[in-house]
From TrEMBL:
Residues 162-214 form the PAC domain. Residues 209-218 have a biased composition (Basic and acidic residues). PANTHER family: STAGE II SPORULATION PROTEIN E (PTHR43156:SF2), STAGE II SPORULATION PROTEIN E-RELATED (PTHR43156). It comes from the Bacteria. It is an enzyme of class 3 (hydrolase). Keywords: Hydrolase. This is PP2C family protein-serine/threonine phosphatase. It comes from Streptomyces eurythermus. Residues 77-91 have a biased composition (Pro residues).
Amino acid sequence: MSSPVSADRPAAQPPGRGSVEALIRQTRRLKGDVDAVRRDTRGDGADPEERWQRALYDLALRQLNDIDAHLAQLRDGPPPGPARPAPPPAAPDGSLLARVGSAEWNLLTDQATWSAELYRILGLDPAGPALTLDELPGLVLPEDRPKLTEMVTSCLVDAKPIDGEFRVVRPDGTVRTVHMMGEPVLGADGGTTSMWAVLRDVSELRHSQRTVSETRDSLHRHRRREQTERPVADESQETVLPPWHGSLRLPHQGPAALDLAAHRLPAATATLIGADWHDALELADGQTQLTVGGLTGQGVAAASGLAMLLGAVRGMAMAGTRPGRLLTLLNRLLGTAAQPALGSAVCCRYLPSTRTLLWARAGHPAPLLYRDGTGRPLDAPDGTPLGASSGTRYEECAVTLRPGDLLLLHTGALLPEHGGTATVDRLLGLAPRFGPAQTARDCVRTVVEEFGGPGREDDACVLAAKVTP
């Protein structure tokens, strides 16, 4: 339908077909590029930033699809309009053409002419008469009627163009958001003879925009919560972890004592993924308990769970509980906690009188033993993660150590974006550098130099124990 501002003024000529084709090609290339990036973005709802990004990509694609369809209309020109009352076939549901309709109201004859798409948008029977400007507000939500009335009045009285939105209620009760654009058609005497308008169903577009806004607000709240909780979680974690960094000499100074050192590598980002820990405890009988592990959860909740778990580990160790039994009881504890969580751990008990190491693990990398310039993981069944099954029993293994042996315990996040096998291979490759090391602290420093780079999304811990002569 033409849209002249004046009835005696010729309509503007449509753009050249070649230029419109070029715009269509550019739009479709851009759609393909945006869709390719969108497919690489996870949409599982696990991360607020990813949800916000996915919503923006969806909105961009929806708008590009609309632009593509608009340009195709410009290229093809207006379809021929058969005489009423037989309306042209409506466009398929969901297409842009089904969401864009047109109308003209003749003020001299009080007649209205609608396209078939406008009937579809408003949910009306195309065989019925088109609504007049006096009847149209009856479909509009009461709170939006003043807006429509003001737009129409300004157009008819002051010859101002229409550009605004309102919500309509279809006969089936569904509510749709409609964007209306139009102008008056002036007669030779300068008076308004009719009004034309294009009405577009923008319900899905507005829904996408609301989704972007909601996910953006959710992301902001998530980040504010992270900024608030991170210092509290870090302080809580530091409180329950051993009050030592670097070297530690336990009180027992007899033969075959352990030289210990540990280090915690913090995450590079403020994202709170979980709580990793390391612990060394001198027991009353001169034995030493070593544990390293991790707990799922985020923020203060993870730090609180870590405090409970580490307290239980120390209490059971002081009571003489051996590693296999200790992990079995710890697994039951996590399964019955008020906030159930999953965890992993390796638990070792060192008997200096015989240089024997008793150990067990639950879903955690095995300790690494370095001897005579080479390293290997200790052999033992994997053991299911803590909290996964309440009836799990964890096997215990024993190995005899020698003077000069180095035992390395670590969490799985040392190597960002790589699996446990890659981390173990890198650690075993450090064996030649561990050989000349005089202390456990030298060994830990080597590990930090190798794994302390940027990009780590989770905290990581490493604990080294060197058997003294």
